[in-house]
Amino acid sequence: MNDPDPYAHDPFFKFIPDGEWNACIGRQGEEENYIDGYIEASIELVEAIFEKQLLGQRDTLILPILYNARHGIELALKYSAFRMETAGCIPKGILRRNHDISAYWKTLNDAEIGDEKLNSLLKALQPFVESLARIDSDGQELRYHENRENGASLQDYSVANLRLIRKSLQSLREIVRRLTYRVVDYVSELGTGTNTDRCSRTDLLAIAKLLPDREKWGSQEFSDAREHIKNRFNLSNRAFTRCLELIQKNREMRAVIGLETGLMFLTDETIISVAMEWRKVHPRTTATSQSLGTSFRFDVREMLTDRTDHREMLDRLIGRLSQDEIAEIRALFYLGRDPYFTEFYEDAVRDCRKQPELASNPGGYLSRILNKTNLLTCLQRSTQRLGRLALSTKLSDI
Hints:
Blueprint: H1 31-51, H2 58-86, H3 101-110, H4 116-135, H5 162-190, H6 201-210, H7 220-233, H8 237-249, H9 251-256, H10 268-281, H11 300-318, H12 323-337, H13 345-354, H14 356-360, H15 362-370, H16 375-385, H17 389-396
Helix pairs in contact: 1-2, 1-5, 2-3, 2-5, 3-4, 4-5, 6-8, 10-11, 11-15, 12-13, 12-15, 12-16, 16-17
């Protein structure tokens, strides 16, 4: 650090080269840090009272404990509401940047977001919002002894039990954590287009798992599942039918109801042949009675043999696989390793196909995929999600 420290005389922000106790803030911080920080601060304070028996500080620490909890709720609601506004789930212009946690909660609740998990988390958060909004509607009364009307703050209350508050804060932390994570996931899911105004992608996948296989949709089992699903997700007949339409169009959900879906370029036979060749170079490991652990002995002859086997495998495959097929093998591997939404699978294949190395050096491109020790596991996972059900089963036996 060559530039002079602009805060050299600042009692709080002077630069100290201390990797252990320097905290990341500002441009190195995240919005989630604010939410987590205030909730955690309230919990740490109440825990300190019990652990250190700070009986004489109960009456002073209770105020920052409750205020930090309230502010954490406010930040979580704002985090959720403004992301929902950006995603188009809340109309533009109705959110106000104030401290009214009741208004933020009501806006989110009234939006009737089509996601079972989000709605359940908002319901779980409701009693915490109502409690702290009742004693402090605008974030003032927990910070000041007098409110804006020059009256005494919290004048309708006389005691607050710290044991009860500690237990409630633990529940609140979990609800807030799950809410913020679900908001991020829900907004991400919207990008797939697999949702209705009543059900999110996660809901549709859950519905698919509640349904019998497609071939049984005329049975009593299907009728019973339909009524259960309609009641659970509060769906009309028309809304339920729309869910069924989307489930039958989606690769991953079709697989859940037992329907096969073809890949772009690869046949089952081609994938099986690649897997069989890969298995020759990566045989199954078996434990022996003499084995007492992992050996790290470096064997040059074994290494050279492995390289020769890999080269021969590559030579056998490179003449049989088109560049389209090689690109799709790569996309299958990464879908199995980093499970992104199956709606983006075709785009992933096209992106792999466009990589310059595939055209200039297809052998090297394929070699790196075949070197993956988890290739077969990833192929089995991805083909299952993509609707190649019989193929996935065969791969698990190789």
